[in-house]
Amino acid sequence: MNTKLIALELKMLTRGVAFRAALLTLAVLLAFSAQHQRGVVNEEEVRVQEALAEAERKKADSADLLVQVENGEKSFNSLWDDPRGYFTWHRNLTRYPASDLNLLASGQRDLHAPVNAVGIFKPPAVAGKDIDNPVPHLFGAFDPAFVLVFLLPLFIIAFSYGLIAREVENGTLSLLLAQSGSPFGILALKTLPRFAVLTGAALVFTLGALMLAGVNLLANLPAMLWLSTLIAAYSLFWFLAALGANLIFRSSAANAMALASIWVVVTIFLPAAVSTLSDRLFPMPSRIEMVNAVRAAGKDADRRAQKIMARFYHDHPELNREETTPNEAHQRFFDYYRKSLSVGLEAEGAVKPTLDLFTERQQKQQNLEDVLSFLSPSALTAASLEELAGSAPRQYQGYAQALSDFSTEWRSHFRRKAFAGELIETRDLAEFPTFSYNPADVSNAYPLRLAVLLLIDAALCFAVFARVRGRGVYRLLA
Asked: pLDDT tier at 208 (50, 70, 90 boundaries)?
């Protein structure tokens, strides 16, 4: 292989006006998408911090009032206003943890609210996000992942569909064979400069866009290494696909049509087909019916409140204590919470089969989509980018499960106090359950996806070399 020929090819490539314009366009797209997502993330973070700060302020004020009540400095006529009652404390806010790389891929971040409330009367649900403008949701989020998964292959196709076909059309393929010495030399001569420049530019532009958007690259060095390897492997797939098309078809037009068809199938058709298949095999129960079932269970439990409380005391005799409060107002207070908590527990049990079916179908759909996504390099890359950004579907499902577990612990804590006839004291504040969740602990499949992507590249590379060894280049001269 003549390194001088490669250097000459590289010089001719980089001096082209169209190539420079393409690189500039790619840089602008990545920079703009990162800045756009930074604005979206910052706006959301401001609202999140305001909500959390307001909740913390209320807790601090209530804690101060509780100290004053215990010291005899302040008194209340009703436990509904008294900080010793549950009303002040029973609502708690949880948030989905923000990742340093959350601007890389929006994933399902635009579908779920970042802050969710946990109460003591019923299980929580991960709230959806209010949509101010539905138009962007028709086309998807414009983020760096969109540029890398959908647009980068188009740049690669634009500068590689004529790798060998152009030489055939210009009648210079025989001359290249004589200069390079072998068909493999031609492949290296035409492919390596383009792969090095386009992939290197994509890496530099992506990392630069993230850095300009405020991401600390050194603090996220492992993730940056995974990201760089992923981009290189994904780019290699498209270069190998282009090389394969050049070894099969004789004309640049045929290559362009073939590669455009591959792009449509890999980036659009296969992911859509996987999603449609999962919906058909595991259809989700009607959400309207599920909501109606929850409401009906709540109403039915409320009608049977006295029987429910009697059965609850029978199942939990350790909580059936004589009233310890000093007056009738306290009695009514505890009666209310005991009834409400018992009714909530009964309603939760009544709708559990419906909610379990919903969760089971959702899990089966996700499992099928995870397996079938290995058929599409674009789906593999998109899913890996979402995991790096902390916005993958499984990570939000893990958050919903962690929220449910925390809600169970939170409600059990207040249920024990209500049935024991205990008010809130200052020492109880430190014993309140706390919420914690790390998306990285739930879904770390991107190393496996990267390995599969590299295996696909290896298979394509083997097919290309087999084609060349079968004198595929010489057939183009016939």
From this structure: very high
Predicted pLDDT of residue 36: 92
Measured in degrees and rounded to the nearest 5, phi and psi for residue 128 equal -80, 165
Model confidence at 473: pLDDT above 80 = no
Lowest mean pLDDT across 20-29, 122-131, 384-393:
122-131
Predicted TM-score of the model (pTM): 0.84
- Please name the residue that has the structure tokens 């314009």: 21
Q: Is the pLDDT of residue 347 over 80?
A: no
Residues 6+ away with beta carbon under 8 Å from 16: none
Q: In this predicted model, what pLDDT tens digit does every residue of 138-156 receive, in sequence order?
A: 455 789 999 999 999 999 9
Distance CA 92, CA 52 (A): 10
Q: Does 321 score more than 50 pLDDT?
A: no
In the chain, what are the domain boundaries? 1-478
- Residues forming beta bridges with residue 117, ordered by sequence position: 93
